């Protein structure tokens, strides 16, 4: 019964769309986004039971509708062109370096700002402190360490 109702829903959507590009004319509306979000996975995904997918593929105007939206808004997925290649490891390549010539400088600057922020926090929270001491006549003064507990 569920498949029958789903097929009926697809048929009604197909009839409502007719030969229009979108449901309310030549520009997409929120209904188009909602319908596309349900139809595209149904049309493109591999499903264990393909009954509903086959029915959708038989409704040519809904298939054209999905293909049109995919090529218009997602050209690397449903259209002819492909997205710009990104290395899977996250490494930089020459095309990416040409895209942002100051990338290395920005990276260094962000590391320095982060380091300054961490050092500032360490000083302000008391984790690190600077103590000045007077220097003796020899120029050197031994460092004395205080113990918290003298003897146990």
TrEMBL record:
Record-annotated membrane-spanning stretches: 108-130
Organism of provenance: Melospiza melodia
Cross-referenced Pfam families: GST_C_6
Keyword annotations from UniProtKB, A to Z: Membrane, Transmembrane, Transmembrane helix
Protein name: MTX1 protein
Gene Ontology cellular component terms for the protein in this record: SAM complex
Gene field: Mtx1
InterPro entries: Glutathione-S-Trfase_C_sf (IPR036282), Metaxin_GST (IPR033468), Mito_Protein_Transport_Metaxin (IPR050931)
Residues in Metaxin glutathione S-transferase domain copies: 6-69
A single GO BP: mitochondrion organization
Record keyword Transferase present: no
Record has 4Fe-4S as a keyword: no
């Amino acid at each position: 019964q569920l498949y029958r109702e789903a097929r009926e829903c697809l048929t009604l959507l197909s009839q409502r769309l007719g030969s229009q590009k979108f449901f309310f004319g030549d520009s997409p509306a929120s209904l188009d986004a909602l319908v596309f979000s349900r139809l595209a996975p149904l049309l493109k995904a591999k499903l264990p039971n393909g009954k509903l997918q086959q029915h959708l593929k038989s409704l040519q105007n809904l298939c054209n509708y999905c293909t049109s939206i995919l090529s218009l808004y997602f050209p690397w997925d449903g259209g002819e062109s492909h997205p710009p290649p990104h290395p899977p490891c996250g490494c930089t390549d020459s095309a990416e370096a040409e895209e942002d010539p100051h990338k290395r400088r920005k990276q260094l600057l962000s590391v320095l700002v982060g380091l300054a922020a961490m050092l500032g926090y360490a000083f302000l929270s008391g984790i690190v402190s600077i103590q000045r001491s007077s220097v003796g006549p020899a120029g050197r003064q031994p460092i004395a360490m205080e113990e918290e507990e003298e003897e146990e």
